[in-house]
Structure formats: C-alpha cells, structure tokens
Amino acid sequence: MHPDSATTDDLDDVGEPLRVSRDVDVVVRQQGLGTRLDQYLAAMFSDFSRSIIQKIIDAGQVTVNDAVAKPSYKVRDLDRIHIQLPPPTHDLPQPEDIPLDILYEDEHLAVINKPFDMVVHPAKGHWSGTLANALAFRFSKLSNLNGDYRPGIVHRLDRDTSGVILIAKEESAHRDLSMQFERRKVYKEYVAITSGVLDRDSDYIERRIGHHRHDRVKMTVTDDADEGKDACSFYEVIERFPGHTFCRIQPRTGRTHQIRVHLASVGCPVLADKIYSGRDCFRLSDLVTGLPPEEDQVLMPRQALHAQRLRFMHPRLGQPISAVAPLPAEFETTLAALRGQRVTSQAALRG
Questions:
Q1: pTM given for the model
Q2: In which domain, by residue range, is 220 found?
Q3: pLDDT tens sequence across 65-102
Q4: Active site residues
Q5: Which DSSP string do the residues of 195-252 spell out, in sequence order?
Q6: Residue 293 sits in the same domain as residue 195
Q7: 227 and 154 housed in the same domain
C-alpha cells in the first residue's frame, strides 16, 4: 500500500524551492482492503486533511483502474490508484538535531528506539520535532517511497507509544520490508500495563476494528463487516497486580490503535491512555490512599504501551534481524510501585 511517487524539486530565481503539484501512483495491498477511498488516501497522505482529499476526488483528480472514482468507493486488492496531489502547504521536513537511539544500522536500513511524545512524520499541528526531522539530520540517504513528508518511514507508531521502528535508506529495501509487513512476516512484540486484570494467562482477541461513528479520533470494535477490518492480537500475562496487569502482546494484524482498542474491548484499557481509558497519566496517589500531596508523583506520564521487539528478514543480507528496545524508565518506576502496593495488600490480608 506504499506509493511510488514522482516528485519535482525545482528552485526559483532566489534559490527557494517551488511548491509543485505531483502525480502519485498507488497499488492497493492487503492492509487497505475494504477501506473507503477517501479514508485510504487521507491515511496515506496525512499532510492533507480528509476534507482536502475528498475535494481532490470530487474534482476528478483521482482514478481507480483508469476510471474516475468517488470518495465512498471501497478499495480492493491490486486496485491501481492515480492521484494528482496539489502543492504541499508546508515545507518538507527540515533536518533537526534531535538525538536518536539507534538499535541497528547498516547501509540499507536502520532500527530506531522511538521515545514517547514524538510524532513519526510531519502532519497538521506537528511540522517540527518529528522523527522525520531527526532522520533528515542523522542520515544522508533515506528512501522516498512513501513520499517527501515520510522519508525512510516504513511503518508507524502512535505519538505516545515508544519503542522499535524500522527505517529504510533505499527504495528497494523499503519495498521488500513493506511487503514483509503486508504479508505478516514481521514479528512484532509489545508490552503494556493495563488498567484492569486480564482473567486468562494467555489468549487472543479477534474483533474487527473500524472508525468510531461519533468520535473521529477513536477506533472501535465492530461486528459489521462493511465498517471494520479483521484484527487479531495475542496476549500473555507477565505479572498481575491488584487492579492492573503487565502483559506482552503480539498483534497479527496492523490496524490503527489495534492493541489499545482490543485491550479496552475486554475491559483492560492501556494504563494512562487518554482516548480509551479516560486518564492521561497514572500517579502514586492512585495507588496509595491518603498520600500527602507533597509526596505524590506522576508514575506513568503517557499511555503504557511500548514496542519492545521487532524481528524481520533483512532484505539484502537474507538473515533474520531482531531488535529489542529496553523497557523505558517510567515503566520500571510504575512496575516497582505496583509491586510495592501488591506486597502491602498481601500483608494487609494476612493481618
């Protein structure tokens, strides 16, 4: 589902880059099946809002299999989409000297441990400080397969999800890695702390995921085959606490907010996930009753979800690469507090 884009970077008489329109050709792959055309393109070209994408389609600047399409068209496997994108309204990602935690690097690709509170690529409201800005500073060569606003970006993580993310330096490697994701050949492992206790030691959640009908930011589980896409997440409990669970999750599909939606659907939303749990942080006072204000502290300042491990086949070396991102400090702090509270609770029961 990744576009092969043809772009033109010209200079005007004073050396400033001209913003020009560009034609992009896209071939739909497995992950995009059944999505409305406007939603599909808005997700792919996030530097344009969905309303702008709809206007582009309505103006006849999008064809599917050489025929003019409508916004409501449901994309199918191997559909050939051609879109005439207007000139970008913002400059391309500028190099910014932002430190990167590089887990693996060679001439073809790199694996980064993304911190939380970092947007992956520029989009509305986030035109600087993104991973793309940091990559532009750190690497002299990046794949342009996903367009000018996403140099080297093979896949994405939510802003407040930390952990392993894969970067391509060349387009041929990018195509191979993208195909591994689409064919579900990439092993992805996350860890999460949940608000709520999972009742089984290991299990899987298999529920379709679609857009929420009333909240454009949220996704939701649905039984409607026309509204949602198949999604499956396996989980394993690592440790239980009173009211909380530390668990490992392997998503077999790659839907938007998949782990967060699936865990919320079984009554165990990710801790401090504002969208799905209603809380944007977790404090010591949430564990300790009657704690004096001066002793309170924020234990988990963001959603407690971390992409811990990524395993894939190297597109050039032909050997498996496994990258592991260490558990962030706020996870260690929160788990230590939960363990302390568990000891206190057990002692109270014995007493």
A1: 0.80
A2: 189-307+327-350
A3: 999 999 999 999 889 999 998 876 666 788 999 999 99
A4: 158
A5: ES--SSSEEEEE-EEEE-SS-TT-EEEES-TTTEE--EEEEEEEEEETTEEEEEEEES
A6: yes
A7: no
